[in-house]
Design a protein that fits this description.
Blueprint (H helix, E strand, L loop, with lengths): L1 E11 L5 E8 L5 E5 L16 E4 L5 E9 L7 H6 L5 E7 L1 H9 L2 E10 L5 E13 L5 E2 L1 E2 L15 H65 L5 H9 L3 H99 L1 H36 L4 H21 L1
Parallel strand pairs: 4-9
Antiparallel strand pairs: 1-4, 1-8, 2-3, 2-5, 3-10, 5-6, 7-8
Length: 403
C-alpha cells in the first residue's frame, strides 16, 4: 500500500527563502527522499507541491521533514539533505495501525517545528500542517537519497547576477529578522523595567507587612502572656473562680517556662556544635598555614639547591677545561721531547740547577747578614764559621756548574 502526503502548510516566525526536504526511512533502513525548490521570501512560504507517495511495504516508516532558510546549497538537493544544517525539523511515524485509519478517511496532522538554540535548548520556530491520504497518480514518487540530483563543484558556482540577487534576498530577510529581534528586545527591556518597578513596590509592601506582623505578634503576646504582679494575683484570687484562674495562669507560665528552657538548651547545644565546628575549622586553617609555610620553605630549599647545582656544574666545566689544558700541555711537552731530544732535557736540567742555585744564594745571603749582625755583638762560633765556609764553597760550585 502507498500513502500520500500533501497540503504542506507552514507558518514561521521569521522571513526567508525556504526549502524543505522529506526523508523516509523504512524498517529495513532504506531511505527515500524528496527536496522542493526554493520558495520566495515569506514567513508562510508557498511551494508547487502536489504531494509525495510513500511505499509502506516495510512498515513502520519514519518521516523526517526538514526546513532550510537561505541556504547556499538549495540548488544541490543531495548535499542539502546530507550536509546542510536545517533551520528546524519535525518527524513522525506511520504504522500499520495508522494505515487502517487511512483506508476510511484522510488524516491531518499539525506538528511543531523545533530547533536547538546556541544555549542547547529547544525552541519552537513555527508549525507545519500535513494531510495524509491514499496515494494517487498526481503524487510524486520518492527516490533513493543517492539518486537525488546534485551539482558538481564547477556547476554549483552561480553567475554574478544570481549570486548578487541571492545575497540581496539573504540581506533583506536577515535585516527583517534583525529588526524583529530588536523590537522584541525593546519590548523585553520595557517589560523588565516595569518588572523591576513592581518588584520594588512589592518589597516595600513586604517590609510594611512584616512590621505590622511584628506589632500584632507583640500585642498577641501581651494578651496571652500578661506580666502579672503580686497585686494582680491577689485581686484575681479574691474574685469568684479566681483560684482556678490563677492556677491556669501559673500552669501556663510554667509550660511557657519549660518551652523556653528547652529552646534555650537546644540553642546552647547548637552553639556548642558551632563552637566545635569552628575549632575544627581553625585547626584546619592552622594546618593549611603550616602546609603553606612548609611549601614556601621547600621552594626556598629547592631554589638554593638549584643555585648550588648550577655552581657545581659551572665548577665542573671549569675543572674539565683545566684538565683539558693540562692534557694539552702534557701532549705538547711530549711532542717537544720527541722533537728536541737531548737538548731539551739539558735545558730542563739547566733551568732546574739555576732555580736551586738561586735558592742557595738566597740562603747564603741570609746567613751572611745574620752572621754580620752576630759578629757585632759577640765573636763568631765554630759552627757559624763552618756554615759560612760551606756557603762560600756552595757558591763556587754553583758558579763553576753554570760556567
Amino acid at each position: 500500500m502507498e500513502v500520500g502526503v500533501e497540503s504542506l502548510s507552514v507558518k514561521f516566525s521569521i522571513l526567508g527563502n525556504y526549502t524543505f526536504g522529506i526523508l523516509v526511512t523504512d524498517s529495513a533502513g532504506g531511505q527515500l527522499a524528496y527536496v522542493s525548490e526554493e520558495a520566495a521570501s515569506s514567513s508562510s512560504p508557498k511551494w508547487n507541491f502536489k504531494g509525495v507517495r510513500i511505499h509502506m511495504h516495510r512498515a513502520p516508516c519514519e518521516v523526517l521533514v526538514s526546513f532550510f532558510c537561505d541556504d547556499f546549497l538549495a540548488h544541490d538537493k543531495r548535499r542539502l539533505l546530507v550536509e546542510a544544517r536545517p533551520l528546524c525539523s519535525c518527524r513522525f511515524l506511520i504504522t500499520e495501525k495508522g494505515l487502517e485509519h487511512l483506508l476510511s478517511d484522510a488524516q491531518m496532522r499539525t506538528l511543531p517545528l523545533t530547533s536547538k538554540t546556541p544555549d542547547s535548548e529547544w525552541s519552537q520556530l513555527g508549525i507545519v500542517t500535513l494531510t495524509m491520504v491514499r496515494a494517487s497518480s498526481h503524487h510524486i514518487a520518492l527516490i533513493p537519497l543517492y539518486k537525488l540530483p546534485t551539482a558538481l563543484a564547477d556547476h554549483l558556482q552561480l553567475s554574478p547576477r544570481e549570486l548578487q540577487s541571492h545575497l540581496r534576498r539573504m540581506n533583506k530577510s536577515k535585516t527583517s529578522v534583525l529588526h524583529t529581534l530588536v523590537q522584541s528586545l525593546d519590548r523585553d527591556l520595557t517589560a523588565l523595567g516595569f518588572a523591576e518597578l513592581s518588584q520594588n513596590e512589592l518589597e516595600e509592601q513586604r517590609s510594611a507587612l512584616l512590621q505590622e506582623n511584628a506589632g500584632l505578634d507583640r500585642e498577641l503576646k501581651d494578651l496571652t502572656e500578661p506580666g502579672l504582679t503580686d497585686l494582680d494575683l491577689d485581686l484575681m484570687m479574691s474574685l469568684r473562680g479566681g483560684l482556678e484562674r490563677t492556677s491556669q495562669v501559673l500552669n501556663g507560665a510554667e509550660v511557657r517556662w519549660f518551652n523556653l528552657r528547652e529552646r534555650v538548651i537546644g540553642q546552647w547545644h547548637k552553639y556548642e556544635e558551632a563552637q566545635r565546628s569552628a575549632t575544627r575549622t581553625s585547626q584546619l586553617h592552622s594546618k593549611i598555614d603550616r602546609l603553606h609555610a612548609a611549601h614556601r620553605e621547600q621552594q626556598k630549599v629547592l631554589e638554593r639547591a638549584t643555585k648550588q647545582s648550577a655552581e657545581v656544574e659551572q665548577l665542573r666545566g671549569t675543572i674539565d677545561h683545566q684538565k683539558q689544558m693540562v692534557r694539552n700541555l702534557q701532549q705538547r711537552i711530549k711532542e717537544a721531547k720527541h722533537q728536541g731530544g737531548a737538548r731539551v732535557e739539558l735545558e730542563f736540567a739547566l733551568s732546574k740547577e739555576r732555580s736551586e742555585h738561586e735558592s742557595l744564594l738566597e740562603v747564603a745571603t741570609q746567613l751572611e747578614l745574620r752572621a754580620r749582625q752576630h759578629s757585632r755583638s759577640r765573636p763568631v762560633t765554630d759552627t757559624q764559621a763552618r756554615l759560612l765556609r760551606h756557603s762560600a764553597e756552595t757558591n763556587r760550585d754553583v758558579g763553576s756548574r753554570n760556567r
